[in-house]
UniProtKB/TrEMBL annotation, chains A, B:
Position of the signal peptide: none
Pfam family, one: Aldedh
Domain of life: Bacteria
CDD domains for this protein: ALDH_KGSADH
Keyword Oxidoreductase on entry: yes
Organism lineage string: Bacteria, Pseudomonadati, Pseudomonadota, Gammaproteobacteria, Alteromonadales
Record InterPro entries: Ald_DH/histidinol_DH (IPR016161), Ald_DH_C (IPR016163), Ald_DH_N (IPR016162), Aldehyde_DH_dom (IPR015590), Aldehyde_DH_Superfamily (IPR050740), ALDH_KGSADH (IPR044151)
Protein name per the record: Aldehyde dehydrogenase (NADP(+))
Regions crossing the membrane: none
Assigned keywords, A-Z: Oxidoreductase
GO molecular function, one term: oxidoreductase activity, acting on the aldehyde or oxo group of donors, NAD or NADP as acceptor
């Protein structure tokens, strides 16, 4: 398939006259790619938003079964993109092909899971179907018949993430959830994988044609400038925003949203250090094995998962665990990160930690190329960690902050000092869990997901998943961006009332 | 019971040294009341918030059954306040005693309904209890066991409303929902009924003692200055705000919230004109009867309900309906409004409408006292209404804007021009509903509740109610402030994961 570098506005591939160009980047070669991508204009964005608003009137009236057919078709068309998709994304991200295959499968499964859930709706969207029967004889006032169900909120803006070029990008979880709910999507493509985004857009373009959906139901905007992103979230017809990315960018977008006349929900999934709480008995009995699992999880995708276990709280005397972690991470080999920005940010962060008082660097992996990121294992004591908020910040990439605690009281203080997190794991024996019940109770209030004796990476797509957590890990603790409940972000209740 | 004029901070009645005083107001006598109320200080507010934060650690661990017992006890203690409560509130609001009796009953029922719902929880809060079973043999990755349930969000700030001194105030719907969810409440009392608020606080004080709840679970702040309100929503431990009041105040509070580091949900229920769409056949066949019902609904509480039907869309030739409305409202007698501010605002609004181009005043009720508000029936044509956004604004009090439409197309344009509303009623025959199906489909997206052939006033407290709507009628269309789902505003999901 030829790559045009165009944006996709309500069924049309568009390049503005004299548009600025930008280019993707090869992390492997550490140099820009050669396919030009054309910067979308504000006018094009407005066209996309208007088309989506018009499409909403038609799309909101489709039945759950019709939307299911649409989502199945999108999944099939992703599959039909075949090897070209994997090759292009590999070039743009340098993520291993086997990982990309897996993520592509997950992305299709996600669409199909939403489709299935829509097919199972007896009573419309997500089966919100609460009724109260009338009682015309009630005194002093007759009781009416009332029925509660859902409506889609309207046009949704979606921002792709760099670290999941399929599952959290163009046709990823946010887009799937919005389309399932009955909301058109205007998608701001991530500049780290613009060609992947174009291919994915071809897939949905075919699915729209095949299932007769209104053309404005999906648009994809290619733009490197920040202006377009802010215009998108400020546009009046936008009724919700799905975002996966950094705290800094999210904060700027929220400032723009705060200037809107109409407040809209901003669902930002921002990141997390995903504390790994290691209890005494576990460390004593299975320290070596646990260290291996933790290191494997940290190195997965070279640490570029939002659920990467970046903070370990371990007993001071957990020598076996600590030694094995040093061993594992020292032997690990460096790899690329997703973009030059992420590399710069990683190197800056580890430099800061190297120079932080009371922090020691216990191990680092082999740096095979200067533009790679290698694993870092930092270590500090509980008091130093609690006093220096800088040590709490997520380092996006393969870096671990190991905090040693001396006793249960200190561990409780550490947990109390934590910011909001997407997840935390507790590693312990049943005995550990009983002894530390109060600490675990408190830890729940810091996280969106609490995991017993498992790694946080690998977020299951299912009805009972929750991917979201207290601020600053996400901007709306009441919502999840993974799992079937992700649809709820784009639905709202309506009550229908009559006398009987 | 002696009235102290104090604020109630975590079990203590507090008056700051040298505190400023303010006074309630008698709408009936049009003069201030004589009981001094003492302005709370910022320090007192901080004490209340800190105490609530500490109480949260205990209160969140109470079982649903324990919280049910607490809510039942609050309802019982409200009942035990007896006649003094009704007399005081009548003095502060001049709402008729029979109305206040009804509202007191509703307020107790609300608490008991939440309590009942908690008792029926088999699996914890609101029965969110979604599980996915493990599949350890799945390839390439084992599937974990995951379980989704709710946690309370933390300390909730509640602002009382003037127009429902019981049901939407100190121990009203927001407080009941937050306490049911497991969240402590810091309550900013409404200055229009401070003594009512003090009595209600005595009720919850007794219930706290009786059921052994932590003292910080509820505090009540008396303050006339706006500063305290802003300090309250800015305080770090506050995790959600329940507000019922005007658009202007809500906007200011949201500006303060936008300056917080951590974004928190602001649940503002702001008001609405509650369009009454009258279809042709209904107007022709039952115009007179419908006019009577509409006028009765408008005059209820002298128009001071957020669901008061302030906008009527009627066929141009609906002569019988129009004549009857003129007749009814001309004969109606004026009454007080809740506060001098509301009177001023009402008089200013009707003056503006009297002078608005293309708007005629068809009827006004008898003005018995200059400080009263009398009914006003304004009339305009569809084009004038659509062109002048000022005519769309809610007039809080007994005022109606009747807009005449010539045909179905014009009615559709009118519906499309509407802002978000709490509710709308459609008055028609079955035939009307079939003919106007597309219009009704569109109207749904403007409202939180759509009502067939009934008045919008009288919001049923039940599981299938929705009281909330698209902006600007409320600030979070995904939530309701009436009905059992009101609890959802103060809960958030958590996933618990383990291997099996």
């Amino acid at each position: 398939m030829q790559i045009s570098g165009a944006s996709y506005i309500a069924g049309q591939w568009c390049i503005a006259e004299g548009a600025d160009k930008f280019f993707g980047f090869s992390p492997k070669l550490n140099q820009p790619l050669t396919t030009p991508i054309f910067e979308a204009t504000e006018q094009m964005l407005q066209q996309a938003v208007s088309a989506a608003e018009q499409a909403f009137v038609v799309y909101r009236q489709t039945s759950p079964a019709e939307r299911a057919t649409f989502l199945y078709a999108i999944a099939d068309e992703i599959e039909a993109l075949g090897e070209q998709l994997l090759e292009v994304t590999h070039q743009e991200t340098n993520l291993p092909l086997v990982r990309l295959q897996g993520e592509r499968g997950r992305t299709m499964n996600q669409l199909r899971a939403f489709a299935q859930s829509l097919e199972q709706c007896k009573n419309g969207l997500l089966d919100l179907d609460i009724k109260d029967q009338a009682d015309p004889n009630r005194t002093p006032l007759a009781k009416p018949y009332t029925h509660l169900s859902y409506l889609p909120v309207g046009v949704v803006a979606v921002f792709g993430a760099s670290n999941f070029p399929y599952a959290f990008s163009t046709l990823g979880g946010d887009t799937a959830a919005a389309l399932a709910a009955g909301c058109p999507v205007v998608m701001k493509s991530h500049t780290a994988h613009p060609v992947t985004s174009e291919l994915m857009t071809h897939a949905i373009d075919k699915a729209i044609a095949k299932t007769g959906m209104p053309k404005g139901v999906f648009s994809m905007i290619q733009a490197k400038g920040y202006g377009i992103a802010h215009q998108l979230v400020a546009a009046q017809p936008i009724k919700a925003v799905g975002f996966t990315g950094s705290f800094g960018v999210a904060q700027k977008l929220m400032e723009t949203i705060a200037t809107r006349k109409e407040a809209i929900p901003f669902y930002g999934e921002l990141g997390s250090t995903n504390p790994q709480v290691v209890f005494a008995q576990k460390a004593a009995e299975q320290g070596k094995q646990l260290a291996q699992s933790l290191c494997q999880s940290v190195l997965m995708g070279n640490g570029q998962f939002c659920t990467s276990p970046g903070l370990w709280l371990v007993p001071s005397d957990a020598e076996e665990l600590i030694e094995e972690a040093i061993e594992q991470l020292s032997q690990s080999k460096s790899d690329t990160l997703l973009s030059p920005n992420i590399v710069r940010s990683f190197k800056r962060s580890v430099e800061l930690l190297k120079n932080a008082q009371g922090v020691s660097l216990l191990a680092q992996g082999v740096l095979e190329q200067t533009f790679h990121a290698n694993a870092h294992l930092f270590c500090t004591d509980a008091n130093t960690y609690m006093e220096n908020k800088q040590l709490h910040e997520e380092v996006f990439g393969p870096s671990v902050m190991m905090v040693k605690y001396d006793n249960a009281q200190q561990l409780k203080q550490l947990v109390d000092s934590l910011e909001g997190q997407l997840s935390a794991s507790i590693h312990g024996s049943n005995n550990d869990f009983v002894t530390n019940a109060q600490l675990i109770e408190a830890l729940q209030y810091k996280v969106g997901r609490i995991i017993e004796n498992q790694m946080p990476t690998g977020v299951e797509v299912c009805a009972s998943m929750n991917h979201g957590g207290p601020f600053p890990s996400s901007t709306d603790v009441r919502s999840t961006s993974v799992g079937l409940n992700a649809m709820l972000r784009f639905l709202r209740p309506i009550c229908r009332q009559r006398a009987e």
